[in-house]
TrEMBL record:
It comes from Rubrobacter tropicus. Keywords: FAD, Flavoprotein, Oxidoreductase, Transit peptide. Residues 146-239 form the Acyl-CoA oxidase/dehydrogenase middle domain. Pathway: Amino-acid metabolism; lysine degradation; Amino-acid metabolism; tryptophan metabolism. This is glutaryl-CoA dehydrogenase (ETF).
Length: 405
């Protein structure tokens, strides 16, 4: 169990933050271990991602060579315990997501798909044999996973999925299509959710090797968002699987929803990382860009923009921390995750748009990050539940009335 640092420790550890960074001194509420995770990932992003992200985004390249580096940092399945995973707390994982997304949403998404979706599904619902076979390799970055839930006609309504697994002797035969599946063209194993003819809970999860006969995936291109990431269309054409491919502990849609909540949690933090990067770049630009004989940061309207951005970042980051503490305590409810995801992504997009205006015309180039973050956040706003879906989840929690159907 860790405790926050003392005042003397806080004051003696590092120089004062730049103006506007951690304005409310949130780090006073972080332990030494939590700060060490944050600082390690922040340094990695500064040294490895930020110098290269413009080229990766411009050329629509996911840098696969970075996967072992993520593994060396302990980022892959970092909040899972055992099987070579780092066993970090929810808050530590959230801080890592925030720093990664300050670099780029697409690269944070890799960590999320690998750890919060694919590895989490195996860890929560897999057999011991499945865990031993896949989790240590995935934690080391030696195997990549993907998570197949969304379909061309089943996005916000996964209960209407058409992918179907039928019994044939002791095997299962899988047919169907999935869409917007992160990492599928570079993955070694796919966690696939499909309908079956079982009674009561017909949706089951399967581990599908991507080299299985009948499995095919192709990148979705061109994209205007998440260009340094991979999203795919996937087709299953009579993919034959043994009984041992089924995730034995997952029955019904509760299985994939539990994994989605893990990913949504990381987004709550990650969105604030993107927002912070937009704010800091706009503040620095406003202090150096001169018009009418003085820095534009001296003008009231520009200061108002910076202040509004800062307020929402501080509020959203404190919200993320509070939700993370509840997650570590085991008291967090799914609708509370929805509140965090809805608020923080929505505010991050507004911050990115406002930050872009500080740059004027220069803001539409890749020389500055707000418009790249803005484009990426449109995907973040959509995946793991749209604004509308999370609004209705919260509406149901408030009124007790289910309004989806």
């Amino acid at each position: 169990m860790t405790t926050p640092r003392t005042e003397a420790g806080r004051n003696g550890r590092e120089a004062p933050a730049p103006p506007g960074q951690d304005f409310l001194n949130m780090q006073a509420h972080l332990s030494e271990e939590e700060l060490a995770v944050r600082d390690k990932v922040r340094s990695f992003v500064r040294e490895r991602i930020k110098p290269n992200i413009n080229g990766w985004f411009d050329k629509a390249i996911f840098p696969k060579e970075i996967v072992p580096e993520f593994a060396d940092l302990g980022l892959l399945g970092m909040h899972l315990t055992g099987y070579g995973c780092a066993g970090r707390s929810a808050v530590e994982y959230g801080l890592a997501c925030m720093e990664l997304e300050a670099g780029d949403s697409g690269l944070r998404t890799f960590v999320s798909v690998q750890g919060s979706l694919a590895m989490s599904a195996i860890h929560k619902f897999g057999s011991e044999e499945q865990k031993q076979e896949w989790l240590p390799r995935m934690a080391k970055g030696e195997a990549i996973g993907c998570f197949g839930l969304t379909e061309p006609t089943a996005g916000s309504d996964p209960a209407s999925m058409k992918t179907f697994a039928r019994r044939e002797g002791s095997d299962w035969v899988l047919n169907g299509q999935k869409r917007w599946i992160g990492l599928a063209t570079i993955a070694d194993i796919a966690v696939v959710w499909a309908r079956t003819d079982e009674e009561n809970n017909p949706v089951r999860g399967f581990l599908v090797p991507t080299d299985a006969e009948g499995f095919s995936a192709r990148d979705i291109t061109p994209k205007l968002s998440m260009r340094a990431s991979i999203q795919c269309d996937v087709t299953f054409d009579d993919v034959r699987l043994p009984e041992s491919a089924m995730l034995p502990q997952a029955r019904g849609l509760g299985g994939p929803f539990a994994c989605l909540n893990e990913a949504r949690y990381g987004i709550i933090w990650g969105a604030m990382g993107a927002a912070r990067d937009c704010f800091e770049s706009a503040r620095d630009y406003a202090l150096s860009r001169e018009q009418f004989g003085k820095p534009i940061g001296s003008f009231q309207l520009v200061q108002q923009k910076l202040v509004n951005m800062l307020i929402e970042i501080e509020k959203g980051t404190l919200l993320a921390l509070h939700i993370g503490r509840m997650k570590d305590e085991g008291t967090l409810r799914p609708e509370q995750i929805s509140l965090g995801k809805l608020n923080n992504v929505r505010e991050a997009i507004e911050i990115a748009r406002e930050a872009r205006t500080v740059f004027g015309g220069n803001g539409v180039t890749l020389e500055y990050p707000p418009m790249r973050h803005m484009a990426n956040l449109e995907s973040v706003r959509t995946y793991e539940g749209t604004d509308e879906v999370h609004t209705l989840i919260l509406g149901n929690a408030i009124t007790g009335i289910q309004s989806f159907r």
